[in-house]
Amino acid sequence: MTILTTARLRLEAISDHHFDGLFKMNSQPEVMRYITGKPETPTETRAMIERVKARWTEYGFSWWSFIETDSDEIIGAGCIQHLGRDPANPLEIGWRLRKDKWGLGYASEAAQAMAAFAFDKLEADSLYAVCHQDNHGSAHVMKKLGMQYRGTEHWYEMDTAVWSMDKAAWRAKE
Questions:
Q1: What is the pLDDT of residues 15-58, one digit of tens each?
Q2: For 55-72, how does the pLDDT look when each residue is reduced to its tens digit (9 = 90+)?
Q3: Strand 158-166, strand 148-155: pairing
Q4: Residue 125: CA atoms inside 13 Å, Cβ hemisphere, count?
Q5: Cα(145)–Cα(155) distance, rounded to whole angstroms?
Q6: How far apart are alpha carbons 91 and 83 in whole angstroms?
Q7: Each residue of 87-114: pLDDT tens digit?
Q8: What is the 3-class SS of the chain, one letter each residue?
Q9: For 47, which of 3, 16, 27, 41 is 20 to 30 Å away at the CA?
């Protein structure tokens, strides 16, 4: 499974030994506000880890834990996955961070690495991202990544803001 590195982060495929750090993040109401609307339980975090491990095995990509290299702590998570979790759909990029790490550039740093993986290693033609319409922080990261706003669509049981970029736009940034 692919490990990605950035100036301040190591992105490791989510695994069982990441439970404590992932639960610490996913149990924060502010982190989950725009994702599910409620903190995760330990059972939900364990089930997520099992789903993610299965996707890594099946597809060769899924969710990473973001490990801050200075502290060796899990400070976030992000993914390349099929939009809507359906292999018939294009690839999607996504992320979340512990509240105490918001606004420090970690999401953009990780998103750059994950997008490079999608375009360079997976040879994706395009990459999508969705967020709750009120999640201006995530939308800012999408814009900073070079994505273009497409409009509102229904994904993950809610109306979401949809952003995308194609391989040519990604290459033009390099």
A1: 999 999 999 999 999 999 999 999 999 999 999 999 999 999 99
A2: 999 999 999 999 999 999
A3: antiparallel
A4: 2
A5: 21
A6: 6
A7: 999 999 999 999 999 999 999 999 999 9
A8: CCCEECCCEEEEECCHHHHHHHHHHHCCHHHHCCCCCCCCCHHHHHHHHHHHHHHHHHHCCCEEEEEECCCCEEEEEEEEEEHHHCCCCCEEEEEEECHHHCCCCHHHHHHHHHHHHHHHHCCCCEEEEEEECCCHHHHHHHHHHCCEEEEEEEECCEEEEEEEEEHHHHHHHC
A9: 3
pLDDT at 1 over 90: no
Per-residue confidence (pLDDT) for residue 173, from 0 to 100: 81
Q: Which residues pair with 155 in a beta bridge?
A: 158
What's the CA gap between 21 and 171, in Å, rounded?
34
Which of 11, 76, 19, 17 lies closest to 47 in space, CA to CA? 19
Q: Which amino acid, residue 90?
A: P
Check the CA dihedral 84-87-92-98 and report its sign.
positive
How does pLDDT run across 118-129, given as a tens digit for each residue? 999 999 999 999
Q: Give the closest residue to 61 by CA, choosing from 17, 12, 1.
A: 1
* pTM for this entry: 0.96
